[in-house]
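Hi! If you just cloned this repository, the fastest way to understand the data is to look at a raw example. We've pasted two of them here, unedited. The first protein comes first, obviously.
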Amino acid sequence: MFNSRFMPCPDCGDSVDKAVSSPHRCDPERLLDYRMFALRHEIAQFDRLLVSFLDSSDGRFQTWLASRDVRRAT
C-alpha cells in the first residue's frame, strides 16, 4: 500500500505534511468553504423544504402575518 506523508486536515480538508513539526492552522475561508461543501445536501434540502412550507396553507398564513407585522411597524 502507498503511504503518503500528506494527509487531509479533518477540519478544513487542506493537505497537511505529517513530517512538519509545526501545528497546522486552518485558514478561516477554507474552513468555511469546506464546511459548506460538507453541508451542501442539507442546504439543498432546506431550500426544497422552505418552498414546500411556503406553498402550504400554514406557510401562506405565516407569510401574510409577517407582511402584516412589517406594515404595522412602519
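Ok, and the second one:
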Amino acid sequence: MRSEVASKAGFSEIRYAQCWEDADILLDALNIQPGDTCLSIASAGDNTLAILSKNPGRVIALDLSPAQLACLELRVAAYRKLEHVELLEVIGSRPSDQRRELYKRCRSELSVDAQTFWDSHASDIDNGIGCAGKFERYFQLFRNWVLPLIHSKSRINKLIQAKSLDERRMFYSQHWDTWRWRLLFRLFFSRTVMGRMGRDPSFFKYVEGTVADRILARTRYALTELDTNDNPYLQWILTGQHKTALPYALRPENFDAIRVNLDRLEWHCCSIEDFLDELGDNAINKYNLSDIFEYMSEENYVRLLERVVRSGQTNGRLAYWNMLAERHRPESMAELLHPLNDLAQRLHQQDKAFFYSAFVVEEIR
C-alpha cells in the first residue's frame, strides 16, 4: 500500500522538534497495559517515550523523516546518559550554557547517521533541540515579532499565572482579547502563512473553511477554560520555555519509568503502510497515530484505517487527532471499529495542545 503523504512533502529537515500533542490525554485514551505492543508515529519522540512509562512489552516508532528519527534518537541517548535536569537543558526547557558538553556525553549512544546529523546542527544543540524544527521557528516568529505588537511581557506573564476559571475568563475578555490580538492572530495563523512558514502547503489540501478562525476559537478555549499555569504547550509558544509546566515525558516523576524501558523501543524510517504490510495481522494492541490522516484523502484514510485494524488485535485501541480536516471512522467500518466518543470528547476538553479540532479514540472489535 503506497503512502500518499510521502509524495507530497520533503522530509529532510526537522519539521517538529517537539510533539505538539498532549501525551496526558493520549495515555488516558490508549489505556496501555503491561506487555502491550504499541505502534507510535515518532515525530520528535516525546509521546513515543511517554508510552514507555506504562511498561509496554514493545514500542515501535515510525517516521518517514530521518531528521525526526534523529530527534527521537538523541532523546533516547539523553535519557540514558543524563540526569533529569540536564535533559531539560538539552531540550531547551531550562536555560543552559553547557548544551554542547551535554551533547558530547550523549553522542556515543547515537548511530553514525544520527551523529552526522547532529554534528552538522551545532547551533540547534546550542539553542536547545526543542527549538530546532520548522514549526518551532514559526512560533518563535510569532513570539518575537507579532506578540510584542499586541501585548507587553508583563501581560504575557500575567496570562500564564495561576488563576481561577472566572479570573481567566475575566482576564481574557478585559485584557487579552483586543482588536489587535484578533487581527494579527488571524493574519499569522492563516492558511497561507502557516502553510508557508509553519507546516507545509500540501498539508492543507483537504482542509475546508477558514483556518485562522478555527484556531482562534480553540486558543480562546485554552486561555480561559484550561489552566494556563499548567499548560506547557502554551507556555512554550508564548515564552520559548516551559515555565511552570512540562509535557508528560519531561516531568521528573516519569523520567525513571521511561529510562528503564528504553530497550523496549525500536524505530524505523518508513511509512506506516509499508511497515504494516510487512508486519502482518493481529500484532498491535495500541496505536498512537498522531494526526497522519489529516494529510490524506478520504479514500486513502479509509484504506489505511482498514489496514490498521487488520494489524491490530481485538479490543486494541487507536488514538489520533484532527486539526483541520475531519477524519472519523466511516459507517462502512462499523463492524470492525467502535468509536469511543464519550471518552474522546471528555479528553478533548482537557487537551492542552489546544489547536486540534477533535481527538478520536476508536476500539477494534
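That's it. A detail worth noticing about the second one: The CA atoms of residues 49 and 187 lie 35 Å apart.
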